[in-house]
Each structure stands twice: as C-alpha cells, then as structure tokens.
Amino acid sequence: MAHGAALDLDPEAAQAAIEHCYEQGWSDGLPLVPATRELVDRFLDQTDRSPDEVIGRMDHLGRTCTVELAAVNAAMAGCLPEYFPVVLAAWEAVMRDRAAKGGGWQSTSGPAPMIIVNGPVRTELGFNSTGGAFGPGFRPNATVARAIGLIVRNAFGIRPHEFDQATQGLPGRFSICFGENEEESPWEPLSVEMGVPEGQSAVSATLLRTCEFVDNRHTTDPEQVLFDFADTIVRTGSLIFRDQSCFVVFGPEHAQLLAKEGFSKADVKDWFIEHCVRSESDLRRVGKDAVGEGGLGGRGPSPEERVSRDTLTPIVPSREQVPIAVTGARNAAMSLVCRVFGTWSNTSCPIERGGRGAMVGGDSGRRR
Amino acid sequence: MGSLIMDPTGQTTRVEAEMQLAHRPPSLSGRTVGLLDNGKQNAGRFVEELGKVLAERYGVGSVVLRKKPVATVDAPSELLEELHHAAELVVIGVGDCGSCSAAAVADGIALERLGTPTAVVCTESFKATADAMAVVRGAAGYRYATVEHPMAGLPGDEVRARAEGVADEVVSLLVDAAVRRGAA
After folding, report:
1. Which residues of B touch A108 (CB under 8 A)?
2. Are A338 and A246 in contact (CB under 8 A)?
3. CB atoms within 10 A of CB B1
4. How far is CA A157 from CA A98, A163, A176, A270, A271, in A?
5. What ipTM was predicted for this assembly?
6. Nearest 5°: phi and psi at A208?
7. Does the beta-carbon distance from B133 to A163 stay under 8 Å?
8. Does B167 reach chain A within 8 Å, measured CB to CB?
9. Where are the domains of chain A?
10. Domains identified in chain B and CATH numbers
C-alpha cells in the first residue's frame, strides 16, 4: 500500500478546487491548478510588463488577452512562475503567425502551435531538447504548450464545438513545445538564424497541420536521405494551396550526416526547393491541378488541362517555406516533417525576464 | 480560510438587451437586394443564383453584388455601409467553414443594426459556431438559413439546386415580421 504524503496538505480541498475549475468550463479536459491571487502575483513578478497590457486580441469575438489573464492561464496549466517569461514569448511568437490573428483558431483544420525554445533558458528551466523532445515527461515543455491552449480557450473564448470547429484536430494539439538540441546540432540555432544574438534565449512558433516521421537508418548517402524527406514533403494529401511550408525538424543524426557531407542549413533548404516538385499529371490524378475559384488559393479540379502533364510545380518555393530546427536524441536517424498551417513568421521572440525573475537570473531554474 | 480561485476568462456576466432586428418589408417585389459573396469557393455563384431565383419567384427588382476581401473575419464596416445604402435587403453567403460561418453571422447582425434586413446562409455543419457568434454580438437566437453541407466543390447545377432549395427560407427571414421578434 502506498503511503500518503505526511505533509500538512488538504487533498480533499484540492480535489474540490479542481472540480470547481471543471464546472466553470475552464479545463481542456485535464485537471487545472486552481490559481489564487497570490500564485498569479508570483507569475507577474517575473516580468516588467504591466498586468493590464493587452497581448492578444480577437476583435471579432470581443475578446482580449492581458498579461494578467495569460498569467492566470499559465498558472492553471501547471507552469512554475519562472516559466512565465517563456509563456509570454511563446504567445508573442504564436501570435506572429498571420493565421493566429485571423480565424485560424476557429478553423476546421484544428491547427496546433509548435513552440521551439532556444538558448540557456532550456537548461535553466529544464526544457527537454533531447530524447522524446515532443513529449511527454517534462514539466516546462508540457505546461508552456498547455498554457497557450488555455489562453485560446479561456481568454479568447474559443472552445471545441463552439468557435473551435476542428474537424478532427491534431494529435498533440497544445502539447508541442521542445528545446532545440543546440549542443548536438551542426548548424546555428534557429533563433540565431532569425537574428537573435547568440546566448540570448528566445522562442519561435508556428501553427501546424501535422507532423510526419521520416525514418531513414538505411543509407548514409546524403542525397538518398534527402530524397526520402522530399517524398514526404511533396505528399499530395496535404496540398491545399498553390504551395506550402514544411518545418523540417531533424533528429541530430540526420542533421550531422548532412553537415558532415558539407550541407549547410541553407544548402539543405535549396536542395528541397529544387527537388520538392510535383508533376501536373500527379496533381491532376488527385483533382488538385487547378487553383480553385474564390481567390483563396485553394486547389480544385480543373475541367480542362491547363498546362502539359509533365509541367513541374515547386511545393516549397522559397527558403522561408522550409525552416529547419534540430531536436531529439542522437540515437537513431529519425526526423519529422511538420506541416505549417499558414505562413511561418520567419522570426524568433527573445525571452525577457523582468521583476524578481531578472534579479535571481539563472538561479530560478534550481528551484524545480 | 479559503481563498478565491481566479477566473481565466476575464469575462464578467453580461446581461444582453434583446436585439431588435431591422424593419421588414411586406414583400420583395421591386426591391433591390444586395448579395454579399464571402469569398468562399462557390459562394459567389451561390448568391448570384439565389439572386436569380429571388427575381424569378419573388419579383426582386435588381441585385447588387459585393465580395468580402477576407472570408474568415468581419467584413470591413465601409463595405457594409455601402451595401446598406445600395440595397434595401441583403443576402450573405456562404458560411461553410469554422471562422467564415461565424463571420457571416456577425456581418448579418451588423447590417441589421444599420437597419438593413439581412438573411445569412450557412451550411448546416456550422450551426454551433454561428449561434455562438450571435451570442457574442448580443443577438442570441439570431435566425439564419441553412443549406446542406458542403458548398465548396459542388458543380454549377447543384449550386443552383441549393439556391432554389433555400430561397423560401431566405425570403421568410427577409419579409416575415415575426423574425424581428428574435428567436423562434
């Protein structure tokens, strides 16, 4: 028989408080931490920003999110107060996605934010950036992503079966947050590539449609490996618009293999731009050969052939459409192709610690 | 001593005054009807076909066609003002996605507030989000017409059939004095 905690706790009061949160409709389905004024104040102590500052708007729903509301939701998600600057940066990064500012959260696509953390904050707060980086098991990864989901649900009022009209949604929605494995990546960190100074912690984010694995432990020929990625990138089922964006999240082994053969990040992107193409006959076979009427860029079947069947359409026509990050363990040659829902913002947001968080600096992580 | 659990929604309970819709004319005969195409695939064709059916069956005098720049959010207020002045009644279509169905209802309610009787058409799959938007805009129970889902991807003759099938419902939303009193 397990021993109960011999601390001066009141589990029954905790259970009642958790049930109260469920009854209010605040939960994403899992228990929430009941947030008190005192707890939320500890979150607000970690930033110099005013609690009343508006950090997100859904004007068409009559909703706004303030720093304080973000803190309440982060506390309820299970974050520690010292994660709060990361939540604020992640929120800003997510909201830089054009779709997140419009109707993206209400979309039938049910997109999921993918949050990438760079810099010393990963080790200071204990973000997982190695084995199993996509989860579960690590409090910062799990709760920062969950906080974003709770803000959308509670502060924006976008809930499933109401304003959230996801057809199926994404596996892992509101749980995707990982640290970049900078230590084993052969390339510069994503945040540095985006112009944030080296050593400065930062968050990048985009909305995803899904993640698909590429397992190639079969060859060490870089071109063969890249063709295996290309096959996933050009899959027609995911094609809606004229072209698309794919966030390629390499495992360290694939990244190191490519780097060893002389591929820089830019080289890999250029290779994808050149080789990720689809023929008109392939697109016609699946009814996606024409840009649909309606001006939304959708593909629909064209009654007549518009161009010859061997015409090739680039799927990821620019470097911005194939961002690259590295995460996971260096224990197998596996990677993920992550499909961007809208348009990757091509930016990273520095994490700004303020208030008491700035005073204790890197010490905050040791409190875990 | 228990302490209060903070509310993560930032909402205070609002008491909504019941919204009064615009005055309805007794019939559509000779009236100018605005057709607002929300830009979704087949929406333009649908509202145009509906305009033709309204002219053929109900004697609508003329139609004014306008298109929303972005389907997923509210129409710009200038566009709604323009429609309010150019047309006596307005039909909006087609709410057939998560955000654009809510946005279509929002546009309909905005036009009602300007004084223009409006009929919004959504596909039946999006009633929940359309109803939720009506609540947000202070018009709980706002009535709109529904057509079978989907609308995108339909061939032209089926779009026409959808327009013919929903025409009576659209007309009753535009002329029936009972609609003004709110939810049925």
Report:
1. 97-98
2. yes
3. 2
4. 19, 8, 21, 41, 43
5. 0.87
6. -110, 155
7. yes
8. no
9. 15-276+315-367
10. 32-180 (3.40.50.10350)
